[in-house]
Amino acid sequence: MKNYKNQIIIGVDHGYGNIKTANHIFRSGVIVSDTEPVFKTNMLTYGGKYYLIGEGHKEFNADKISDEEYFILTLAAIALEMNDYRLNEANVHIAAGLPLKWVSQQKKTFSDYLLRVPDVRFTFNKKNYHIRITGVSIFPQGFAAIQDRTAIMRGMTVLCDIGNGTMNILFMKDGKPDPLKAYTEKFGTQQCVIAAKMAIQDKYHVNIDESIIEDVLKTGTADIANEWLSVVKATAENYVKKLFDILRRYDYEPSLMRLYIVGGGGCLIRNFAKFDASRVFINSDIRATAKGYEQWAYRLLEKVDTK
Fold this sequence. Notes:
Blueprint: E1 2-4, E2 7-11, E3 13-14, E4 18-20, E5 25-27, E6 30-33, E7 43-46, E8 49-53, H1 69-84, E9 89-98, H2 103-114, E10 119-124, E11 127-140, E12 156-162, E13 167-173, E14 176-185, H3 189-204, H4 210-219, H5 226-249, E15 257-262, H6 266-272, E16 280-282, H7 288-306
Parallel strand pairs: 2-9, 9-11, 12-15, 15-16
Antiparallel strand pairs: 1-2, 3-4, 4-5, 6-8, 7-8, 7-10, 10-11, 12-13, 13-14
Helix pairs in contact: 3-4, 3-5
């Protein structure tokens, strides 16, 4: 969260698997009820309905405005950041993003979606909040995570943002993006999770919990039998092989270019890929994009005020 004059800037990275802010991360799941649920952890109330945040599983949908869930998740993200600073009322400027190839097409509709109710009152974790949404800035996700480093980049760099639902690729020369070489593939880490789940099911006829697979992908191991672990690892290794195949399809050449990886999928590259560590950088900060949104929005607001 950043302060700018009479408003606060809050960056929200609306991932298909997780919502990230500068200081928080939680699953992009919402369970809605017309009656108050028994378990009230991370409960948000708004418009006469009860929402359990971080529960359930949100299916991949390229159109993030198809329902109200991302709006509700945004309110929860804002509340978490405000709670850190003991605020319950504020003017809020939302800084968010979209996949590289979808920004120009969906920027206005996503901005309008987040501005749908400019004056919002809601309750989250038994605390009342009143926010006035004063503006929305939409940026290309992934690139926001490195926009403060581009000035020192030399030669050819390939940015690869690996999220839960998509993989975004951007080629850059001396830190400057090439708009003609930006790509979005529906090849996020969830595809790896699903493939591992099916592999376990086919071999052992058991429905493994996705959280176990996610533990393996994040850390390289889990508290399961070695033969089961081997199946998940083999699936992850196959996934990263396909990921590099996609990069090469878009003319990535490791001898000529450096690779900069951001997003939650970076852990799969670290744990299961073979690469030249001197030419591949993996940003381990999963909240880097949300932080980048805030910095970018702050500079834009300053620039507007100096005109």
